[in-house]
Design brief:
By secondary structure, this protein is mostly beta strands. Strands 1, 3, 4, 6, 11, 12, 13 and 15 form an 8-stranded antiparallel β-sheet that branches. It has a 7-stranded antiparallel β-sheet with strand order 2-5-14-7-8-9-10, with no helix packed on it. 9% of the residues lie in helices and 51% in strands. The N terminus is likely disordered. It is built from 1 helix and 15 strands. The chain has one domain: Exo-inulinase, domain 1 (Jelly Rolls, Sandwich), CATH 2.60.120.560.
């Protein structure tokens, strides 16, 4: 009897793994109208609009005015999620943009690429930097960002992140992490941008995945 069950159990393993990484939100903008933005987005600040280049649609934050801009998407969640997006912008002389993906709403956690500091960092709330590592960003290239929040133990949560250039292989390990002892508050997923180079910041392939 067990001989017959074993092959069935092997077949179930991919299904169980798929359930452990269930996509709860995806947006590639291909079905959206140009010069508008998805109705489910909650724009906090910024003139975000869908644009199209070479047959690909994406979300654009214009290079002016200068400031800090963001929007929220998805549902209110606390832990057990990965959020990813690919983001593109350009530098001008010695002026650089910065951009981020986030979890847990406005007061939550962000994974930010800051080319001016040549860093990848995890922030909390507005600008509270929790941890940072060196990171070399390529102007004009799409950069993938992925942030994860999970409960590690009683009264402990791990916020982890990674970033890599479009066309490169995704790093197998998380590049940066922070152990949080303050219970996270529920909030939506987010994207952020500061176009200090006065060049647009483009966003595409937003995705949120539930993890165990």
């Amino acid at each position: 009897m067990f001989r017959h069950l074993f092959p069935v159990m092997l077949l179930l393993i991919p299904i169980l793994n798929a359930q452990a990484s269930e996509a709860v939100y995806e947006q590639n903008f291909e079905e959206e109208e140009v010069d508008d933005y998805p109705m489910d987005f909650l724009v906090l600040e910024g003139d975000f609009t869908v644009q199209e280049e070479e047959g690909n649609k994406f979300l654009r934050l214009p290079g002016t005015p200068l400031g800090s801009f963001a929007l929220l998407f998805g549902t209110n969640e606390t832990e057990g999620f990965e959020v990813s997006a690919r983001i593109r912008s350009e530098k001008t002389k010695r002026r650089f943009p910065s951009f981020a993906v986030g979890v847990n709403g406005v007061s939550g956690y962000k994974l930010r690429v800051d080319p001016n500091k040549r860093s990848l960092e995890i922030l909390k709330r507005d600008e509270e930097s929790l941890v940072q590592i060196p990171y070399n960003w390529t102007s004009g290239s799409w950069t993938w960002l992925k942030i994860r929040i999970r409960k590690a133990a009683d009264s402990k949560w791990m916020i982890e992140g990674k970033a890599w250039e479009e066309g490169a292989e995704e790093p197998g390990d998380w590049m940066i992490s922070y152990e949080e002892t303050e219970e996270p508050v529920p909030g939506k997923f987010s994207i952020w941008g500061k176009p200090f180079s006065e060049k647009p910041i483009d966003y595409d392939d937003l995705k949120a995945v539930k993890i165990d």
